[in-house]
Design a protein that fits this description.
The chain has 315 residues and is α/β, with parallel strands linked by helices. It contains eleven helices and nine strands. The strands form two sheets. It has a five-stranded parallel sheet with strand order 7-6-5-8-9. Strands 2-1-3-4 form a four-stranded parallel sheet, sandwiched between helices. 47% of the residues are buried.
Length: 315
């Protein structure tokens, strides 16, 4: 449940967050940037303990949550894979969550099954933060994406944001599309055939008047795009390896493509990338994906502060 006003309980989906709550998180994240960089200190969450429970691999999400908690004076326990845990003995998610919620003050959970985070919240006595559930949602990734767009472009309303890549299985694209619609952006959907955005997301965009166009080639939208959000093809989500091989390497963002775009176009990517963005793009002013990755720390600091409650001193 999102709670009332700017008070939050669980963070499971962007659907659970009002625009007011999102704006409050982004405002708080701005304040957190110096502490995230190590230029200040905070004991805001001193004495608090976060469970980092990852059933799937992660680099940025797991480490940025742990960094965020420690930058605020708290501490972290948990596991980065199920190896060596009671999950290997057949322990259910419900029982794991019941146990972990008795030990700590909040839980950040990544799980391969869509809906796992919401299920976990129903068994937890402490806040649950969804760090990605299968092909479902990844709300804190969406918050850092919004923060990056806001800080790099100066605003969100009226922007043309083009989502490029695996829109069927890419949970970051699902969450971001829904959130952008709350802020008055125009969303274009570019994917290989068979990897289009789920119908329920498209229907939501149309109802919110945030739908731009859907196509199968980035050349069709690049000239009008303000933000190009690139996603990798989600190999681990494909039930059929042959289907993956058919679309692998379908798109590649390179200097030639960017040359057809606006001078102030920015390129984002939730990472990790495979071959969908050429390394030659890294040195251009368009490339914002490493800044985007850093922004995960102040944004997740803001989320943790708001979920676990304000208090303490930051300087």
């Amino acid at each position: 449940m999102p709670g009332t006003g700017n008070v939050m309980r669980h963070v499971i989906s962007v659907h659970d967050l009002s625009r007011e709550q999102i704006e409050a998180i982004l405002d708080r994240a701005r304040e957190m940037v110096p502490i995230a960089r190590g230029d200040g200190r905070s004991d805001l969450l001193a004495g608090k303990l976060l469970s980092s429970i990852f059933y799937e691999p992660s680099t940025r999400t797991r480490l940025s949550f742990e960094t965020a908690m420690k930058r605020l004076g708290g501490d972290v326990v948990g596991f980065a894979s199920t190896a060596g845990t009671s999950v290997e003995k057949g322990e259910t998610l419900a029982d794991t969550i019941r146990m972990v919620s008795a030990y700590t003050d909040a839980i950040v959970l990544r799980h391969p099954r869509e809906g796992a985070a919401r299920l976990a919240a129903s068994f937890s006595d402490v806040p649950v933060l969804n760090a990605g559930d299968g092909a479902g949602q990844h709300p804190t990734q969406t918050l850092l994406d919004l923060f990056t767009i806001l800080t790099e472009k100066g605003g969100i309303e009226g922007l043309d944001v083009s989502l490029l890549g695996d829109l069927r299985y890419g949970r970051t694209a699902h969450s971001l599309a829904l959130a952008l619609a709350k802020f008055g952006a125009r969303i274009n959907l570019v994917s290989p055939k068979g990897l289009e955005m789920p119908k329920e997301v498209v229907d939501h965009l149309k109802a919110a008047r945030g739908f731009g166009t859907a196509c199968h080639g980035p050349e069709e939208i690049i000239a009008d795009t303000d933000v190009l959000y690139v996603t990798r093809i989600q190999k681990e989500r494909f039930p059929d390896p042959v289907e993956y091989e058919r679309v692998a390497g379908k798109y590649r963002v390179d200097l030639e493509l960017l040359g057809k775009g606006k001078q102030d176009l920015i390129v984002m990517h939730p990472l990790p990338r495979v071959d969908e963005i050429s390394p030659e793009v890294d040195g251009t002013p368009c490339a914002k994906y490493f800044i985007q990755a850093f922004n995960g720390v102040p944004v997740r600091m803001a989320v943790l502060a708001m979920v676990l409650g304000e208090g303490g001193d930051a300087e």
